[in-house]
Amino acid sequence: MARIAYVNGRYVKLAEASVNIEDRGYQFGDGIYEVFYAYHGRLIDEALHFARLTRSRGEIGLAAPMSDAALRVVIQELMRRNRVGTGLIYLQLTRGVAPRDHAFPAARRPALTMTVRPKPAPPEGLAGWHAAAITLPDERWGRCDIKSINLLPNALAREAAKQAGALEAILFDTTGMVTEGASSSIWIVGADNVLRTRALDQRVLPGCTRAALLADVAAEGVTFREEGFSVEALRGAREVFMTSATSFVKPITRLDGAPVGNGAPGLVASRLYTRYLARLKEQGADV
């Protein structure tokens, strides 16, 4: 069956989908995006993703193409047409089509495109569900809290990780403090058994899986501090793991070629992964 995309009000075959050459997303990266994970037809952490989409829109002064309720209908219809119940929905919103000029054009209708593809549910356990990472200087722009489509530095970082035989690149700023992964939030458990992830600021994206996991941290009774940590602390951590809508909760067991802790998924990550699976099944139930 041919894959179907949504392009500015129309459902079209993916192979035939196109946007105008003067779309500002294409020429300036003037747009934002959101990625949803659907499980058994339900969007996981849906409210968090819609809230982040609204926030990103507001930060760059971009109008809503439709109401959230209408957008939910379009997403469900796109999933139905692609016969995908468990998978990823990619949504991109740009300032639309206008003659090329850096300043914003007069009011234009935003351009909305979406695609969907299958992605299996995470495994029941962490055996085989872990990865390696490298560390790199953070060379991204100064507003990483906006889910902008300007992702060239992220792509370069992920390619460097790939060339090193790793999955993720963990980024650090000019003061040696970890910001986040190229496409994930980063957590550590230090030698003091305290779980840490960086507090939200303009240097990190407010991850939806990160936000949802904070409730799980409290439920598990894990000692936790929302504070920054250095790349040295990262390298000396007992546990490192990443979270995102696509990686779920994934332990990092090797960093810059060296084992993290004992080289196996740690206890805290395992407990939080179990909680994540339970929440996933709860949100995707009764479909």
Automatic annotation (TrEMBL):
Which parts of the chain are coiled coil? none
Q: Which Gene3D superfamilies match?
A: 3.30.470.10, D-amino Acid Aminotransferase, subunit A, domain 2 (3.20.10.10)
Write out the GO cellular component annotations.
Answer: cytosol
Q: Name one GO biological process term.
A: branched-chain amino acid biosynthetic process
Q: Which GO terms describe its molecular function?
A: branched-chain-amino-acid transaminase activity
Pathway field: Amino-acid biosynthesis; L-valine biosynthesis; L-valine from pyruvate: step 4/4; Amino-acid biosynthesis; L-leucine biosynthesis; L-leucine from 3-methyl-2-oxobutanoate: step 4/4; Amino-acid biosynthesis; L-isoleucine biosynthesis; L-isoleucine from 2-oxobutanoate: step 4/4
The cofactors required by this protein are: pyridoxal 5'-phosphate
Keyword annotations for this protein? Amino-acid biosynthesis, Aminotransferase, Branched-chain amino acid biosynthesis, Pyridoxal phosphate, Transferase
Catalytically driven reaction(s): L-isoleucine + 2-oxoglutarate = (S)-3-methyl-2-oxopentanoate + L-glutamate; L-valine + 2-oxoglutarate = 3-methyl-2-oxobutanoate + L-glutamate; L-leucine + 2-oxoglutarate = 4-methyl-2-oxopentanoate + L-glutamate
Q: What is its EC number?
A: 2.6.1.42
Sorted alphabetically, which SUPFAM superfamilies does this protein's record hold?
A: D-aminoacid aminotransferase-like PLP-dependent enzymes (SSF56752)
InterPro entries per record: Aminotrans_IV, Aminotransferase-like, BCAT-like_C, BCAT-like_N, Class-IV_PLP-Dep_Aminotrnsfr
Q: What class of enzyme is it?
A: transferase
Task: Report the family membership.
Answer: Belongs to the class-IV pyridoxal-phosphate-dependent aminotransferase family.
The record's function comment reads:
Acts on leucine, isoleucine and valine.
Q: What is this protein called?
A: Probable branched-chain-amino-acid aminotransferase
Q: Which organism does this sequence originate in?
A: Acidocella aminolytica 101 = DSM 11237
